[in-house]
Amino acid sequence: MPWLAREGLLGRPRYGIGLDDAGLVPAHRCRYDAGVEVDDSFVGGGPVQVTAMPGGRYASLAFRGTARQLPEAWAALLHEAATTSNLRIDV
What we know:
Elements: H1 2-6, E1 14-18, E2 32-36, H2 70-84
Antiparallel strand pairs: 1-2
């Protein structure tokens, strides 16, 4: 949050992208990208990289809670995506 404030990005849409299945990969090896929507003119630096999410349909979940509640939220998102939205789940 301090970095977002310094960069004037508070209030922008934020994204969290889990890159590994915590049910298959040990927690200490799980990778996660945290992102925030920026203007095209934004320049990253240091540990901050600018990338573009490919267009398409994505399953998403608004989440407020603790890290301990993430597995349950993730399972609910996957179940919903797999059973009702006709989305393919890439792992």
